[in-house]
Each structure stands twice: as structure tokens, then as C-alpha cells.
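Below is a complete specimen:
___
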Amino acid sequence: MKSHVTDYVLYRWRFGLGLLVIAVIIGVIVWGGALQTPGELRPEEIKSVSISSSLSKNSLDPAMIVNFPYHLLQRLSIYAFGATTFAIKLPSLVLATFTILGILVLTQS
């Protein structure tokens, strides 16, 4: 009997494997690029850290609502890992990872 292309396991899983390869490539680019950047922080990152470290119930204004989840995540990161460059950049990496996963979920259909 002649075997068909559809009999191969790789053929049946081709879309899932393709999306997985794309996710791994993008993840390596995002995380590798972020971890290979120089140790210096940009002025915007320093400003973000100062806002995140000064979060309190009394200092919340309506303009901060948009960026509140990011600043809260950054504050938790700094609390867990100290004021290191990795801890400052970790919230951006986490959100980038969730964005990649969201794109993969949306493209699955």
C-alpha cells in the first residue's frame, strides 16, 4: 500500500508546530534582545521607576489609571528582585510575552 502525505504525524500537526516555531523565534528575539541590551537605563525608564516606586492610595490621579497595571507590575518586580536593571525591564518582558501568546491564540482559528 502506498502511504499518503496525510498519514504522517508532522502533516497533521503542521499548523501547531509552525505557530510554536514562530512563538519560539519571537520569544528568543524579545527576551534575548532585552537581556543583551546595555545596563544603562533610558530617562523614560527612570521616570517610570520613580512613578512606580511612589504609588500609594493617596497619589492616584485619573491620568494614572491607564498605566496603573504596568506601574503595579513594575513595583512588584522591584519589590521581588530589588532595584536592578532586570527588575525594571521585567514588566515590559512579561507584557511582551503575553502579547505574543495573545497573537498566537488569535491566529489559531
